[in-house]
Amino acid sequence: MSDGRRIMTADEVRRAIVRISHEIVEKQAGTQGLALVGIQRRGVPLARGLADAIAENEGVRLPTGALDITFYRDDLSLVAQQPIVKGTDLPFDVNGMTVVLVDDVLYTGRTVRAAMDALMDFGRPRAIRLAVLVDRGHRELPIRADHVGKNVPTSRDEVVKVLVAEIDGEDGVAIDRLVVAPV
Q1: What is the pTM of this model?
Q2: How far is CA 165 from CA 25, 44, 158, 162, 168, in A?
């Protein structure tokens, strides 16, 4: 991770995932009826990491899935002409479950709102919770995370880059300045 100011090392990411896994189980008072759903892309390996930590500590493998919110975004027309669909994989029934949505960064809240809309198309969970590695503030919707790895005050001209080994070859978090191209 060469560009940007590193705010979390691989060890700090790992410790945050372990801590969040304990918080999730504690809030649920166990693992019964609990499922993890990662928001594509980087939320998916983070959800798997949480599932691994819970399996190690509780001896129970939670149902884990992946949610693609591409077509649920309210800014789809701004994102791309041809959006890239990453795929949804929910190999369990969400009805009556407590589903913990997992994402890398919580910013405006729009991604989470889209994820809740997408999830509801698969059934009616008993409850939806949110776990994020980084909460950077600047909410535009009344959404908050139940479980946060690190709160990082940022300005709007900064970008939080979460790296996960499965996608980027390493784990870590950095903050970089947004580069605006001259007009």
Answers
A1: 0.92
A2: 25, 12, 23, 10, 5
The answer as to whether 3 is a domain residue is no
Total structural domains within the chain = 1
DSSP string, 81-113: SSPPP---B--S--TT-EEEEEEEEESSSHHHH
At 4-22, the pLDDT tens digits run: 899 999 999 999 999 999 9
Distance CA 51, CA 54 (A): 5
- The H-assigned helical ranges of 36-161 are 43-58, 76-79, 110-120
For the chain, the residue count is 183
Residue linked to tokens 């698969």: 122
pLDDT given for residue 81 in this prediction:
58
Q: Does residue 84 surpass a pLDDT of 80?
A: no
Q: Is residue 166 one of the residues assigned to a domain? A: no
CATH of the domain at 148: 3.40.50.2020
State which residues form the domain around 80.
9-154
Asked if residue 162 belongs to a domain, the reply is no
Please enumerate in sequence order all residues whose Cβ is within 8 A of that of 56, keeping only pairs 6 or more positions apart, or say none: none
- pLDDT tops 90 at residue 31: yes
